């Protein structure tokens, strides 16, 4: 433990703090809530949470329709918790119209002009204003829609995703872009009239107020109908409301998505995505149609939970099922978008039926309470051992300390090795193990005392008591370990922590009784204090009610008498 530097067990959410989310599956088709779909959803959610940079998160299936997500404190905990709840299906819809919602013009600021190289958005055909540094940093500016130069969707021409992966060191092209020029009131007015809103959506589109969270989360609609939706994040001080056409490509047709750093063209961070066979055909068809349109009708909205995550422009038809989204992405934004694209195609819809957040302070209090309970249990066992077994009780106390040291060390190593987290039920399992370990000592001690009661000296009593005590201890520990193993297999969540700790300490009990207790008792039997049955040794024959040893009378045989006379 000290050699590896892992000197403390890893604590679970209920002890260290974090968020526990219970997701309940819903579907209009009861057959859709099956074990296979639940397993798929569990894997997708787990990859989504880990993709957010949250380490050591736990995602487990419980029952037939429930998934438990435990997110430890630290990192992007809140961001990951938000994405865990984003469990609706992912869709690609063509954009029919875009307009600002709740726009408040910001105060104009002076922007120094300089000569720079065109940005990725400019190379895609967007209009940008000077504002980049002379070193060629990508810039963005306001357009007639009142938006910065938007994302562009194009065919993936990179040699490989790995060649431009996230491990590549950032270059000058990846530095943050210059602030966008604030749109004017005329730009906002023009944006309100751009695009074609279907007559059946005109009233809903006009009344849509995306500044209200409850409105943004309430938008919904069938796959084969046009809908209205809100942008996921505010853009330059305002949310965007969009009119979207029927679903063109489903998120389940995305087979792979990953962020990458384009160092060849200087476009900065981008998102590469790959479609499966059905998605490739649908994607090729719809991009061919969008490429002939004018903004904003050439945009492709990525919709998750009825919120528009991104709506890049399509300049040309994209065959082959490989595409790349470029724009003003930071590394975090590219990672977030790739998470949505890669892990957003859940086979079921989920609702958050319970959210429990444990603060580090509350977790510390619970850990302290568990440690106090364990200390009280240990103290009671120690007092009982000293009062009942006296000097022999010191052996049980030493054995308990050895078992506790082994348990603590192994838990510290398992936390780093396999991600084992010590939660409150696991602490409970360790407290129960005190009784199991003490029980093994009692079995062996009582076997020795039975031999002493029969009149046997201590050293032979120790040797004769061991085989019978060994069988009893092994059978008892096997039953406890079997119960722990079955409980671990059939249970989920925190109950598994109790079962794991119980099984671990039961196995360690066998190690301690064989490699510590038995050798120590054998050595102490050679000491006069124990061998002579001192009243404080716990092996006093008189106190135990031992029978006196049988005396055999010697008869002198004739032959022996003759020898003596001779």
What does this protein structure show overall?
This protein is of the alpha+beta class and 566 residues long. The chain folds into 3 domains: 18-87 and 346-356, Alpha-Beta Plaits; 90-103 and 120-125 and 137-341, no CATH class; 359-544, Multidrug efflux transporter AcrB transmembrane fold. It is 44% helix and 17% strand. The chain is rod-shaped, with a radius of gyration of 36 Å. The N and C termini lie far apart (75 Å). The model is unreliable at 104-149, 159-193 and 552-556 (pLDDT under 50).
Describe the protein's topology.
Elements (H helix, E strand, L loop, with lengths): L12 H4 L1 E9 L8 H17 L6 E5 L3 E7 L4 H9 L4 E12 L18 H4 L28 E4 L29 H9 L5 H9 L5 H6 L8 E5 L7 E6 L4 E2 L3 E9 L5 E8 L1 H14 L9 E5 L2 E4 L2 E2 L7 E8 L1 H13 L5 E10 L1 H30 L3 H25 L6 H30 L4 H33 L3 H31 L3 H4 L9 H4 L13 H8 L1
Parallel strand pairs: 5-13, 6-12
Antiparallel strand pairs: 1-3, 1-15, 2-3, 4-7, 4-8, 4-11, 5-14, 6-7, 9-10, 10-14, 11-12
Tally of distinct domains? 3
Q: Pairing-aware structural class of the strands and helices?
A: alpha+beta
Q: Extract low-pLDDT stretches.
A: 104-149, 159-193, 552-556
**Strand ordering within the main sheet:** 4-7-6-12-11
Give the CA-CA distance, first to last residue.
Answer: 75 Å
* Percentage of residues in DSSP E strands: 15-25%
**Rg from Cα:** 36 Å
User: What's the main sheet like?
Assistant: 5 strands, mixed, barrel
Average pLDDT works out at 73
What's the number of extended β-strand segments? 15
* Net shape: rod-shaped
Helical stretch tally: 17
Helix content: 40-55%
